[in-house]
Design goal:
The structure holds two protein chains of two kinds. Chain A is built from eleven helices and 15 strands. By secondary structure, chain A is α/β, with parallel strands linked by helices. Chain A has two domains: 133 residues, Rossmann fold (3-Layer(aba) Sandwich), CATH 3.40.50.2300; 224 residues, Phosphatase 2c, domain 1 (4-Layer Sandwich). Chain A has a five-stranded parallel sheet, sandwiched between helices. A five-stranded antiparallel sheet of chain A has the order 6-15-14-11-12. The N and C termini of chain A lie far apart (80 Å). Chain B has a single domain, classed as STAS domain (Transcription Regulator spoIIAA), CATH 3.30.750. In chain B, the strands form two sheets. Chain B has a five-stranded mixed sheet. Chain B has a two-stranded parallel ribbon with strand order 3-5. In chain B, strand 6, helix 3 and strand 7 form a beta-alpha-beta unit. Chain B is globular and about 30 Å long. Classes of the chains: A alpha/beta, B alpha/beta. Chains A and B meet through loops of A and helix 2 and helix 3 of B.
Chain lengths: 388, 112
């Protein structure tokens, strides 16, 4: 059973106390109300400070030491969530208006009609219950928002910020999430024999479920990359593991590639992802052929084909997600692979760290004031023209 | 989301409009769920007037196919514009969802 509502009655009239207890006796006995009494504003504030369980105040206006209107101003400093009802002389609109302006919830008039008073008390208590519920919901929302911020920080923190360095190549990557938690990720891994594993991935949908799916994909991919020699076998393993228990039909498109700096060979398998762009030293470019792969997590026991190419000195490969190519401007045009290729055609980059940020700049410039609707991820691999 | 539907010999034909992305994918899903009747033997999604579909939208199509599978019903798509076809091809969805050039051809294939 809920505890009785605690009501502090403030009046200098000594007769009110026995009268109130008598008229409200059924409610008191039923455990609905509990009354406390004070005889002026000063005493009332003392009671409120002593007992934080008081829900509402029912106060007269004219009292010695501290009147009801002054008390109204003081109550929020003790507890802003206490609701007050004022008892005023009949027709004393001036004081009633002042009381309401000072935050009284309602008023009753003398002589007190106890039936009306009971309705007023119940209405005040109902309002208080709703108010407390709203406060609790707000607190929960704040807590949830904090957790989302933590999730977002965790997501950002798993993305590499340091990249393998070699005299013959450069790698850079970054991701800009559209919402607090996103579905894109990339990874760059140092593997056996100096090989480098590169992954760019995009989980269907955004938000918390996508973020969880993304975290497990990333972990599975790391494990598979270390245990397998072929990009196709890596995708196959991750696909089968993701497919188990995937009732929600989430999926992830993954481009996984392995680069051998010694030979310049790049082998890749594409699981339903945007084809990477090969950029030559003169700024000309071509999309790498698809490998007929299906997005991961959908169909079990798939074989993923792989392709291979050898980067000539000066060649670069741009891995990206559809946040780059499907960025829209105000006219609803897409940035497209044409937009991406145009960046390099105009001025073949000599510094690929700058080129990576130039891609982001170009997408932002194109989109203008249009809100970013998808995560933007871009990873570039460059085989140096000559070793420094 | 507005979904124009009609039925032809046990097949529900639904026309998707403009864009399906992360912002309205759930609405798209709810509209499809509301339109599907337990007596439907197949759902044909006519994508002629669809200009863009994101991975969230593809996921809805897949979930719908799964739901339909439980009532032994099939799902197919038809009349894809070039950009939509490209999205299906890149993601590999063209290998999971049957694609037909027109409603007539789709209905014939669904009947057999």
């Amino acid at each position: 059973m809920p505890r009785p509502a605690k009501i502090l009655v403030v009046d200098d009239e000594p007769d009110l106390e026995p009268l109130m207890l008598q008229r409200m006796r059924r409610h008191i006995r039923a455990g609905r109300y509990e009354f406390l009494f004070a005889h002026n504003g000063v005493e009332a504030l003392e009671r409120l400070r002593e007992d934080p369980g008081i829900d509402m105040v029912l106060s007269d206006i004219n009292m010695p030491q501290m009147d009801g209107l002054t008390l109204l101003e003081q109550i929020p400093q003790v507890d802003p969530d206490i609701r007050s009802v004022i008892i005023s002389a009949y027709g004393d609109m001036k004081n009633i208006r002042t009381a309401m302006n000072r935050g009284a919830f309602d008023f009753v008039t003398k002589p007190v009609d106890f039936e009306d008073l009971q309705v007023t008390i119940d209405r005040t208590l109902r309002h208080l219950a709703e108010w407390r519920e709203a406060l609790a919901s707000r607190d929960k929302l704040v807590a949830l928002q904090n957790e989302l911020d933590v999730a977002s920080k965790m997501q950002q923190s798993i993305l590499p910020t340091e990249f393998p360095k070699g005299s013959s190549y450069q790698i850079f990557g970054s991701m800009e999430p559209a919402r607090s938690v996103g579905g894109d990720f990339f990874d760059v891994m140092s593997l056996e024999n100096g090989r480098i594993g590169l992954a760019v991935a995009d989980v269907s949908d955004k938000g918390v479920p996508a973020a969880l799916f993304m975290m497990s994909t990333r972990t599975l991919l790391k494990g598979a990359a270390i245990g397998n020699q072929d990009p196709g076998a890596v995708l196959r393993e991750v696909n089968d593991l993701l497919h188990d228990d995937n009732e929600a039909a989430m999926f992830v498109t993954v481009l996984y590639a392995e680069y051998d700096p010694a030979s310049g060979e790049l082998r890749y398998a594409n699981g339903g992802h945007n084809p990477p762009l090969l950029v030559h030293a003169d700024g000309s470019s071509a999309l790498l052929p698809l490998t007929d792969g299906i997005a991961l997590g959908l169909v079990p026991d798939l074989q993923y084909k792989q392709e291979s190419l050898t980067l000539a000195p000066g060649d670069a490969v741009v891995f990206y997600t559809d946040g780059v190519t499907e960025a829209m401007n105000i006219e609803n045009d897409e940035f497209g692979t044409e937009g991406l290729r145009a960046i390099f055609a105009a001025s073949p980059p000599s510094n690929w760290k700058e080129a990576n940020s130039a891609i982001f700049d170009a997408v932002h410039a194109f989109a203008g004031d249009m809100p970013q609707s998808d995560d933007i991820t871009c990873v570039t691999l460059w085989r140096r023209e000559s070793e420094p | 989301m507005e979904l124009e539907t009609r039925r032809e010999e046990g097949t529900l034909i639904a026309k998707a409009q403009s864009r399906v992305d992360g912002a309205n994918a759930r609405e798209f899903q709810e509209a499809l769920e509301a339109a599907i009747d337990t007596s439907d033997r197949a759902l044909l999604l006519d994508l002629e007037q669809l200009s863009y579909i994101s991975s969230a939208g593809l996921r809805v199509i897949l979930l719908t196919a799964k739901t339909l599978g439980k009532q032994d019903a099939k799902l197919a798509v038809c009349s894809l514009s070039d950009p939509i076809r490209e999205i299906f091809e890149v993601s590999g969805f063209d290998k999971i969802i049957p694609i037909h050039p027109s409603p007539t051809e789709a209905l014939a294939a669904l009947k057999s």
